[in-house]
Design a protein that fits this description.
It contains one helix and four strands. It has one domain. The protein is an alpha+beta fold.
Length: 86
Amino acid sequence: MMSASEAAKRAAEHVTAMTGRSAECVVGLERAGDDGWRVQVEVVETRRIPDSADILAIYETEIDADGELVGYRRARRYPRGRVERN
């Protein structure tokens, strides 16, 4: 079974390969069934000047027990620094 940290690393690598954009960080991680992981990766979609005007996105991925990408989708986009209220 793949560790959580390895799944996070592989998810970031897969998102970078699929989108052509660098992953900023992993913002969510959870087990998906008995042998996989769901990982949320934050990406800078559009760089702007100043940096505070960047557009970020969260990609939700599913990684199997071998570290392979099973699925991914862009869940949302938002400007950097935007705070969500619950």
